[in-house]
Amino acid sequence: MKKSVKTALYLILILMAAVSAFQGARNALRYSQDFQYDAALLLRSGINPYLESLEPAGAAETGPAADFFRIFEEAGAPQKVEANQFPSLLMLLFPMTFLPFSAARVLWLLLNLCFTAAIILLLKQTFFKKADGDVFNILMLLMIAGTPWRNQIGVGQHSLFSFCFFLLSVWLSDKDHKVLSGLALSVSYFKYTLTAPLAVYFLYKRKYKEFVISLIPHALGTVAGAVMLKSPVTDMVILPLKVASALAGEGSIDIGALTGGAGWSLALTLIIMLGLIAAAFRFKEGEDNSIFALLILFSLIMTYHRIYDFFMLIPIAAGTWFGDKRVNHKLFLLMYGINVIYFFFLQRFLGEGESTVFVSALLYYGYLILYILSLVLREKREEGYAG
Fold first, then answer.
1. Environment class of residue 2 by beta-carbon count within 10 Å: exposed (0-12), middle (13-18) or buried (19+)?
2. CB–CB of 90/83 below 8 Å?
């Protein structure tokens, strides 16, 4: 690439990323409605946020979270409690609930910007170690310039937080800090719909100690939540899942959304999860990037996800352009590029109608199938060479 062309590309992407960051920050300071501040505050106050989600009794609007609901009422965007996180996860937000929501969302915005910076640094230290410098920089600028990242910031979502701690866990594990790695992995489960499938990576790496450690804080937090709410321990698992299941049909192109929240979609999700675990033991040592990308691809369709989570298309590049075993097929690379351009820049102009969902699903599932085929064909070739 000519120096003048590269310079122009950088300038355009930097400008686009700056505008995107500004707009995302402005939206976050006004909204951040997905922050789960209300649910965490209710839990800390001893009010059951799960019952308030499933059978509202008015304790949320008139209790300790009254200011939260008043702010959104006045902004013309009334909210309701949707506590779809387990108690051990909501407890991670307790420090934020000692601030009024107007201050807490400012802090959450700043933290999300820090998580973004950390993600970039950790990707370069882990799955993007072999990335060309210019390619890496362009991909990171694309991530920030795109609609998904901007929406992630604006609505106060937790995927940046969770993915940051997942990458931190991988980095710590590579440094042989097993306990710290396990604790970081535990924190990453806040957005478990994203990071629970990614945790299969630790099974592939045979990092069982980190995986087991990651579960302990949540076992303890579940018991603590039951004590705080004076409820059975089983309710601390069942009730959050009930709240989450009510949202099953409201995603984008995930299985639940495409099936209208059909009951059997959960069974299909479980089958896919078991398939990913089985695949983890088939991947060979040195295929870190390939399984990492595969896990991300499936995580975005197994359970509820909206456009804001598709910033994860950028990390998928780890298994496309600069994995340990690079995929060179031009069609494959073209499909990746089309998906990034569509989800990052085009989809927002098309609305959320059936035609948009159809195109989104066609592009994404087409890429997923192509990626799986590339892995299968590569394995067949290697078996042929070995024979």
1. exposed
2. yes
Using 50, 70 and 90 to split pLDDT, how confident is the model at 291? very high
**pLDDT tens digits, residue range 75-106?**
888 999 999 999 999 999 999 999 999 999 99
* CA 382 to mean position of chain CA atoms: 33
Kindly report the number of other CB atoms within 10 A of residue 334's CB atom.
Answer: 12
DSSP assignment of 259-300 equals: TTS-THHHHHHHHHHHHHHHHHTTSPTT-HHHHHHHHHHHHH
- The arithmetic mean of pLDDT across residues 229-237, rounded, is 96
3-state secondary structure of 48: coil
pLDDT, mean of residues 145-164: 98
Residues in the chain: 387
Closest CA to 49 of 245, 231, 251: 231
Q: Is 260 left (phi over 0), alpha (psi -120 to 50) or beta?
A: left
* Phi, psi at 325, each rounded to 5°: -130, 95
Measure the CA–CA gap between 134 and 208, rounded to whole angstroms.
Answer: 36
Question: Does pTM top 0.90 for this prediction?
Answer: yes
